[in-house]
Backbone:
């Protein structure tokens, strides 16, 4: 998870996010100038690159694709990682390669991945947004997973974080279908606050990796800072991360041990 600098391929293209998507614009993403690009032909097998190119251009796996000319040069541009889903895409590809290397008839082994790390967005900074923050992500890969499995997992996950009441809102993500935004009520702000995003990864992302057709992946991601704001009654995210952090506030609050006895 220490790849703060990531290629656009793993951050966007491998996730079936089209190259003309607004999130790939400099208004939303930090692009690097040195090193400006990664050489994907040296780090990825040509067949995988071809499958990703084809699914973007003409579809496949019951998809019509996006109908544009996919550019390797665009995919090689280096960015500051915008989400930890870039880590998940790498890990799922590694698991698919491991499965394909097994003898024919070997049962597929389910897997779960979790990551906690820093991400970067070119966003205006206000009381609920930062340009640099931390994200938690979880993915579960198994046969026959559905939206119901995802909702049950989210309720159990957030309840352990001290957020027992959630609302789900249908959303759009290029790499998940169906997709849901996750909201929890913030008493200090007096409103429901988005605490995460979730969905079922699309076949256009999973099949080019080589995962079997009946294997699904449910995934969710959330910032560390927003649930912490709710748990500690903080109404400005800049009090948690950055140069405006109040050291007396940190000393005053107890150490948080989610799911364990609180340590003063």
Residues:
């Amino acid at each position: 998870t220490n790849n703060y600098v990531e290629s656009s391929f793993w951050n966007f293209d491998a996730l079936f996010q089209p190259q003309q998507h607004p999130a790939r614009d400099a208004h939303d993403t930090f692009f690097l100038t040195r090193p400006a690009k990664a050489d994907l032909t040296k780090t990825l097998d040509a067949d995988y690159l071809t499958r990703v190119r084809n699914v973007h251009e003409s579809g496949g796996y019951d998809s019509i694709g996006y109908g544009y000319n996919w550019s390797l040069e665009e995919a090689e541009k280096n960015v500051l990682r915008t989400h930890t889903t870039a880590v998940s895409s790498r890990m799922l590809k590694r698991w698919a390669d491991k499965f394909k290397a097994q003898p024919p008839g070997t049962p597929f082994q389910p897997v779960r991945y979790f990551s906690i790390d820093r991400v970067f967005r070119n966003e205006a900074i206000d009381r609920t947004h930062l340009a640099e923050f931390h994200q938690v992500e979880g993915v579960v890969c198994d046969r026959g997973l559905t939206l119901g499995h995802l909702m049950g997992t989210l309720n159990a996950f957030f309840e352990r974080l001290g957020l027992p009441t959630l609302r789900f809102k249908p959303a759009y993500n290029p790499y998940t279908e169906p997709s849901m935004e996750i909201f929890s009520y913030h008493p200090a702000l007096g409103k429901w606050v988005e605490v995460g995003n979730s969905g079922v990864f699309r076949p256009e992302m999973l099949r080019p990796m080589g995962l079997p057709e009946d294997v699904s992946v449910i995934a969710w991601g959330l910032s560390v800072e927003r649930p912490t704001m709710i748990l500690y009654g903080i109404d400005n995210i800049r009090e948690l991360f950055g140069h405006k952090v109040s050291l007396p506030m940190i000393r005053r609050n107890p150490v948080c041990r989610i799911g364990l006895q609180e340590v003063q």
